[in-house]
């Protein structure tokens, strides 16, 4: 049972209890080898009454967590990616880590394990109403990155771009390819999708909806015959926030859950 009983009548939720539930949804062994998921900051035996959910543990998110008295932050992207030689106030990451530790706030990340088996791609495909969707790029046990499926009706690339903006509440998207091209089969890869361009093309996609597409990747994709809609890295992945919030609410209504959507890390002028 994911609960600790104290004096029969009192129920205490620990950080580890929440971790156990999150890892039932997205087991860490489904994360990519290069990734760094799990409890990155804090104590497993920390009592948790308030949880903050965000895509990134930015300075703004950490400040809100401290100000609002949170016990735990759950993010999609890991706060710590590479090896740390020291933790001090000389760096932005060091200052964030010190602040969270001093405030007794734990920080947990579920990244590519959530992308592959946790539900990111499947949710995004469902939101776009893709039919007969399947994994775009398999990584383990039939699970993997992104989804590919078919739209109910053929529409133009421009119409699909407008739909993506509406569905994912994105202010701006970039399209690579002819805006009037007819689109029926769509691949979607929330986050950075450069690595799945070839897979999307080989599986017959007319369009790949993703983020972080550079100049050369866009040109090469169009030359292949694959159009792309770049809705930014954050633009689609922010669906993580509501998804995990609802998941934890259904797990325990005794936890105070706060969703923090700080928006894109850039503005278009």
Brief description of this entry?
This protein is of the alpha/beta class. It has helices at 15-25, 59-67, 92-103, 112-118, 120-127, 157-167, 197-202, 215-224, 233-237, 239-251, and strands spanning 4-6, 10-12, 38-41, 50-54, 72-75, 106-109, 131-140, 143-156, 174-176, 182-192, 207-211, 227-230, 256-259. The longest helix has 13 residues, at 239-251.
Notes on the structure:
The chain has 10 helices and 13 strands. With 269 residues, the chain is of the alpha/beta class. The protein has 2 domains: 4-114, NIF3 (NGG1p interacting factor 3)-like (Udp-n-acetylmuramoylalanyl-d-glutamate--2,6- Diaminopimelate Ligase, Chain: A, domain 1, 3-Layer(aba) Sandwich), CATH 3.40.1390; 119-235, 3-Layer(aba) Sandwich (Udp-n-acetylmuramoylalanyl-d-glutamate--2,6- Diaminopimelate Ligase, Chain: A, domain 1), CATH 3.40.1390.30. The strands form 3 sheets. It has a 6-stranded mixed sheet. It has a 5-stranded mixed sheet with strand order 3-6-5-4-13, with helices on both faces. It is elongated, with a radius of gyration of 20 Å. It starts with a strand and ends in a 10-residue tail after the last strand. Residues 1-9 have low confidence and may be disordered.
SSE layout:
Elements: E1 4-6, E2 10-12, H1 15-25, E3 38-41, E4 50-54, H2 59-67, E5 72-75, H3 92-103, E6 106-109, H4 112-118, H5 120-127, E7 131-140, E8 143-156, H6 157-167, E9 174-176, E10 182-192, H7 197-202, E11 207-211, H8 215-224, E12 227-230, H9 233-237, H10 239-251, E13 256-259
Parallel strand pairs: 4-5, 4-13, 5-6, 10-11, 11-12
Antiparallel strand pairs: 1-2, 3-6, 7-8, 8-10, 9-12
């Amino acid at each position: 049972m994911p609960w600790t009983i104290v004096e029969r009548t009192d129920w205490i939720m620990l950080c580890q209890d929440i971790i156990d539930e999150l890892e039932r949804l997205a087991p860490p062994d489904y994360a990519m080898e290069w990734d760094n998921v799990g409890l990155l900051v804090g104590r497993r035996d920390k009592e948790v009454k308030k949880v903050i959910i965000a895509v990134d543990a930015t300075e703004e998110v950490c400040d809100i967590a401290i100000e609002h008295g949170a016990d735990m932050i759950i993010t999609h992207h890991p706060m710590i990616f590479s090896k740390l030689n020291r933790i001090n106030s000389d760096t932005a990451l060091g200052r964030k880590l010190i602040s969270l530790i001093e405030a007794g706030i734990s920080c947990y990340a579920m990244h590519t394990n959530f992308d592959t088996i946790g539900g990111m791609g499947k949710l995004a495909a469902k939101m776009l109403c893709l039919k007969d969707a399947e994994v775009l790029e398999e990584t383990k046990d039939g699970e993997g990155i992104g989804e590919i499926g078919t739209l109910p009706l053929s529409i133009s690339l421009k119409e699909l771009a407008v739909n993506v903006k509406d569905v994912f509440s994105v202010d701006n998207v970039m399209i690579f390819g002819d805006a009037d091209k007819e689109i029926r089969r769509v691949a979607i890869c929330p986050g950075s999708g450069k690595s799945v361009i070839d897979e999307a093309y080989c599986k017959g996609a007319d369009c790949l909806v993703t983020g972080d597409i550079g100049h050369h990747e866009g040109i090469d994709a169009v030359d292949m015959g694959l159009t792309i809609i770049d809705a930014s890295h954050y633009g689609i992945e922010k669906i993580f926030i509501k998804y995990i919030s609802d998941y934890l609410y259904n797990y325990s209504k005794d936890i105070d859950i706060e969703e923090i959507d700080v928006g894109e890390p850039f503005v278009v002028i």
